[in-house]
Each structure stands twice: as C-alpha cells, then as structure tokens.
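Components:
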Amino acid sequence: MQAPTLPSPRGGGKRLAIALRLILIVAGLGMAAFLYAFPLYWLIATSLKSKPELYQSITLFPRHPTLEPYFSVLVDRGFWVLLRNSVIVCAATVLVTLAVGLVITYPITRLSVPPRLRVGVLNWALSLRFLPPVAVVVPYFAIVRTLQIYNQPIALIGIYSLFNLPFAIWMLKGFLAEIPLELEEAALVDGANRWTSFRRVLLPLAAPGLMAAATIVFTFAWSEFLFALILTATPQSQTFPVGVQGLVTQFEIIWNDMAASGVIAMSVPLVLMVVARKYLVAGLTFGVIREK
Amino acid sequence: MSRLVAELPAPTGTQPAGTGRRRWSRQERLAYTILLPALGTVFVIVTIPFVLAIWQSITADDGSLVGLRNYTRALSNPLFYDALRATGLYALIVLPTEILLGLGFALLVHRAVKRAGLRATLYVLAVLPLVVPPVAVGVVARLIYAPGYGVLNYVLQSVGITHSEIQWLSDPLLAMGSVASVDIWQWTPFVYLVLFAGLQTVPKESVEAAQVDGATWWTQFRYIELYYLRPLFLLILFFRMADVLRVFDHVFILTGGGPGTATQLLSLYIYRVEFRFFDGGQAAALAVLVLVAISILYSLVTRALPLERA
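Structure:
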C-alpha cells in the first residue's frame, strides 16, 4: 500500500503527522481485516475438528484436522439428498427465470415499442424486488396447499422464479441493450426469420450475460430459506439451508457438524461468485453500478 | 398496494397521443404477442396472493366475513408493537453503521490504494460476504456468540477483559447487538462497493483543482465527492431499508426472536403468528399492512432512485 495522497500538512511535525495517520490507517485496516476474516476462519476451523476435541476446552486451531464432520453431515445424516434437492430446485429456477426473463426483455429491448411500455415493465419488475417475502408467505402457503404441491420442489421452483424475475429482467435488459440492433437486422435481411435470428445471432452474443444472470439467480435461490422452511416438510424435498437450520436448533448441538454444514452451504455460491463477481454488484443495484 | 401490483401499463392505451398513428407496426404487434401472455401470466401469479391476502384478512378460518376484526386484533396486539420497535431498533443500529463504515472504507481505499491489483483483490473480498447464505452466516454467529461454546467469550476471558460469561444471546440489548452485527458483517461490503464505484465517477480535474487550491481531505469530500455520492446514498438507504423488512434467516438461526421478543423483527413476528399461533387471519392482516407500508415507501422513493429505466 502506498502512502495516502493527502495534501501534506504545513509547518512542523509533518513527518510525525503522516506517520501517525499511517499507523491509524493500518491499525483500522488490520482490525477490519480481522473482523472480516475471523468468522470465516472460525467456521472452517470448527468444521475440521474431531468430536473428542469438541468436549475439551475451546482450541483456536484444530488439533487433528479431519474431514469426518463433512462425512457425518453428508452421509450419516443423509444431507446429500438435501444438496441434490437444492441443485435441482436452483437449476430449474434458473431455467424458468431466464426463459421468462428473455420473453419479457426481448420485446422491450429489441423491438420498437413505445418507451412508456418499456419503462412500465421495468418499473413493475423493480417494484417486485421490494416485495417482502414474509408478507406473501401467508397466501402462498394457502395456495400451495390448495394446489396440493406442498412438500414438492415445484412449489419452491415457482416461487423462486417469481422472486428472481426482477433481477433477471434488469440484468438481461442491460445485456441485450448492448448488442447492436444492426446484427439482427442483417440476419433478417439475409432471409432469416425472427426466431432464427434470435437463436443464431442474439443468443450466442448474449451468452456471457445469460451466464452471469444464471449464476446470480442460482446463488440467490441457493441461499433462500424462508419459503423452503415453510413449504417443505421431509428430507425428500427440503433444501440444504433447511437442513443446516435443523442442525442449529436441535437439542444438543454438534458444533463441528453444524460448522461443516455451514461451509458446504456457503462454498457453492462462493465458487460461483469467483466466476460472476463482475456482475453481482450490477445485479444487486439493478445496473446502477456497472462492472468496470 | 397499487404501486406494487398495478404498475402494468394498459396494453392498448400506450400509443403516443397525437401522432395520428392508427395501426401498430409489425414490430409492435410482434412485441405485444410475445409480451402480453408472459406479462399477463406473471401479473396474475403475482396478484392472486395479494387478493388472497386481503380476502384472508377479512375472513375467519371458516370463511365467514369478519370485517376489519383481524386488523383491530393485529393492531391491538402488544407483540406487534414489540416487533415494530425491534425492527426500528435493528434499522437504527444497522443502517448508520453500515453506511459510515462502508463510506470510510470507500474513501480510504479510493485515496490510499492506487494499485489496480490490490483494488481488484479488495473487490473480490468485498463481494464474497454478499453471497454467503444468511443461514450460514447465522451458523457462524452461533459459533461466536453461543453460550458454552462461543469463541467470543473464550477470547475475552483468555485476554482477561471479562471473567464471567457474557450472555450475548440472552440479554435483550446484547442479543439485538449480536443479531445486528451479523447484518453489518454481511452488508457493509455492499455499501463499500456501491460508494467506491461512485467515487470512481468523480472527475479527476475538479479534485485536482481543489487540491491545488489547498482543499483538505474533508473539504474535498464535503464539497466535491459527496455531491456525486448523494444519489447512491439514497439507493443504499432504500435497498437496505427494504432488506431490513425481509431479514429473517440469520435472526431465526441465531436467536429465534428471543430473548422474549427482543429480536423478534416484523418478519419473524408474522411467521410466528401464522405458523406458531396458527392465526391466519391476523397474519394476513399484518401482511396487508406491511404491503401497504412498503408500497407507500416505494412510491415516495422510487422516482428519485438513480436507475436507468430506458
């Protein structure tokens, strides 16, 4: 890190002031780094401890690191089923959300429609973003039971798709608008119909954007907990976060298993984010902050 | 309510007035053919729950109309005001802390870190907490604050700051602090990212001119940078306020709303009324009240948000 480029104070004690400021900055950053990293370190450290070690006094480093807790969570407790459910639900959510998102964003970005319609659709999507899930939990619960899809993945897929649609619409709108209209028009002039030019020209060009949106929707769906808690009842359809919650609230908490489940839950989005990190902030702020 | 569900423009009334165009162009016709079924379906799926919520809120379990009785019960329940108080306190702790910390880091990195590689690293580090599932963050928080096995008490005791166990999760005020700290850990990076990106839009010339004129770091911030950050503060405040109303997962994991009702935020309260007290009518009334409140908030703020709507 370089010295701060601040206007240098005039008069004596200049060096001292700069040194003092530097020390304060470094101390502040060190503190921040510790508060940032320690929780994550502690989660991973606890997840690597063996059962006997839990019953001794707390150790800051695992004495005999072991992967046993992961095995215990995934196999002994059967959480691999929940993991599988999560993957199925999230993948299906991504497909539905992107398909519906494309159907809605294609006309408003690629066809000449009145600006009022475009703005109206975008505003409407934005308003959905601020819908507090807990406010619709009550009616959704009733609907899901009436449709007899309680405790079935399809209920979660539908609701996750709905709640991720605003992000998808705003992200896809941004990506599609950046692709020049002329490219598609050229295909149309060459005799291709709309569907062909969409499939052969637009989709390949929009692929990176679609991947980014897919990753982010997957991540959001992966983290969702409230609806999964309410709309599923058995391991056959529960998602992974519900399983994690079960480990936390059980009578006797097995700390290393709980920590291992936490690590598993966060590893998937963390890996995905290494791929899509550039787009996350754009997605979260509806395009106000663009990737550099 | 209307702002949330009825923003859909009337599909037939969208022709610009006075242009004299009678017929839609081929493109417009195609656009509506694609758009209307999709939008219509989504619109119906979104709207049914609202209608159902309103219906549930004015009926009893057996389906008989009870008028506004559910609302009066919801509003006369002291637990509702506990939940409002807890949500307000949570927001009052979380929002200023996150904004000040995020702003501080953004300014610091903007001025003190010039190396592109280091900035990119900080970007990645700041992105990571945003995608950690709140449930997992709740697990971490339990490992830190839990009585008996919490590492925070262990560290404090071995350093000698305290000799007895601090009840992080069973003292009402400390529990609120613990719950809020999780939010601060997870969302300060978001504020940092937004404000840091905003600082990059400040024109270099005006900063340099100010520095030549002898501006201190404070005047440079106060009179130049703050001007460019202002719309972003509004964005952050609104997004985060909407998020406070959604907070559920990590509180549910960490305290479950306790001790008593100290950390029972509005979302947890509604959950409890519906799934613990099995009082669907009252829960629906609360849901409608929350929807109305967020709609009012949304319609007040949305026009001012710096969003690219075109």
